Amino acid sequence: MLDLKWIRETPEAFDEGLRRRGLEPLSARVIALDLERRKAVTVLQEMQARRNEASKAIGEAKRKGEGAEDLMAEVAALKDRMTAGEERQRKLDQDLEELLAGLPNTPAADVPEGLDESSNREERKHGEKPALDGPAKQHFELGEALGLMDFEAAARLSGARFIVLRGKLARLSRALGQFMIDRHTEENGYSEVNPPILVRDQALYGTGQLPKFAEDQFRTQEGFWLIPTAEVPLTNLVAGEILNEVDLPLRVTALTPCFRSEAGSAGKDTRGMLRQHQFEKVELVSVAHPEQSEAELERMVRCAEGILQALGLHYRVVTLSCGDMGFGARKTYDIEVWLPGQDAYREISSCSNCGDFQARRMKARFRPAGEKGIRFVHTLNGSGVAVGRALIAVMENYQRADGSVEVPSVLRPYMGGLEVIGPNG
């Protein structure tokens, strides 16, 4: 959530941030609504003061044996007016809260202008495209030919956008997740967390998925939400907390199932397992000092890149344009891995600095050393990386002409030393 004080003091900067997001200026509306709300608060305070004054006068009159009917009538009238005033203030508070809750984060100054992915800026590439010994096949062609990807069984069980992995491909998927979580905890300084995957409304509100993106989530009949990413529970671990400056940055990671409705994705990536309702992902979350969050973002991207480098995969890093960033981000890097079967780069990791946007929603703060006040932390999140998309990338980049798939060397210890996945795996 954006800082209301900042909007009041720098309305031009606020409107400029919205413009870069492709939105109309709203400073006048926000400031007018806030002014109306503040006036309502002032009127209530004045009525409360007068009510206290009149009540005190009534007590004095009774002690002196004097009549106080007029004062009592005034207090009764003030009570009715205050009830109406409190309801009006609640309504104005709610209206302002809903308006601010629906506004995206404003982009950092160095984020490229543009409203879609065509304006993203390529930062660097790593590695070379593989020299395959035959025509490049897509992952689902390889997996189905091996008898280890079963989309028909998944459709019978759950419908479209699900998959059943079998045999050595199921193990390869598990190996990828274990390798990533081991790398991030043993080498990159993240602490492993095993969080709930069912969360309450407030957790999704804190990270920005609610209220604006409810249709993108799965909700249970009991009112819980299935997490779209472990960013939600990991970031909310500090909700309502006041941390000590010395404890920053906090770095946590988790390997969890994730669930997304893929609303608005009809017709996109319908073949294969690129866009699923259920998938696994290793998530990285940092809670950082405001003055360190930009450096922390660069570090997080390097940690995610390290996974792809260890797997020997060719990729590029791009900075997303203002209009292509997620709702809560002020700056985002996407890592796009090369998929020979698609002859295209596809996102495998997205790392974002959200500034204090989520922290304000969650009331996550820290106490600076030697200072009396408290400040909001900055939160960052990133994929480190998506397990299913890593499986796709390994299959397509390590495919052989005979339809088998070589196992990258770093994964072989997790695969019992297996070097190649062939038929009947």
Key words describing this protein structure:
single chain, 425 residues, alpha+beta, Helix Hairpins, BirA Bifunctional Protein, domain 2, 2 domains, 8-stranded mixed sheet, 3-stranded antiparallel sheet, elongated
Structural features, described:
The structure is a single chain. 40% of the residues lie in helices and 20% in strands. The chain has 425 residues and is of the alpha+beta class. The protein has two domains: 4-101, Helix Hairpins (Orthogonal Bundle); 117-421, Bira Bifunctional Protein, Domain 2 (BirA Bifunctional Protein, domain 2), CATH 3.30.930. The chain has an eight-stranded mixed β-sheet with strand order 1-11-12-13-16-10-9-4. A three-stranded antiparallel β-sheet has the order 5-7-6. Strands 8-14-15 form a three-stranded mixed β-sheet, with no helix packed on it. Strand 6 (218-219) and strand 7 form a beta hairpin. The two termini are 50 Å apart.
